[in-house]
Amino acid sequence: MPASPRLEAVSPFLVWRLLKNKPLRRVLAQSSRVRNSLNQDFQKRVQG
Length: 48
Description:
Layout: H1 5-21, H2 24-47
């Protein structure tokens, strides 16, 4: 199963919303943390 294109489409929108609501540094740290957890979860699902 290929990586969901929905994640690719949603990520910039979420980042944009966070940028509107929070300081930039906090947003970047949070988005990178979320992306890392999503990647780990995806890899676990792919592996089994």
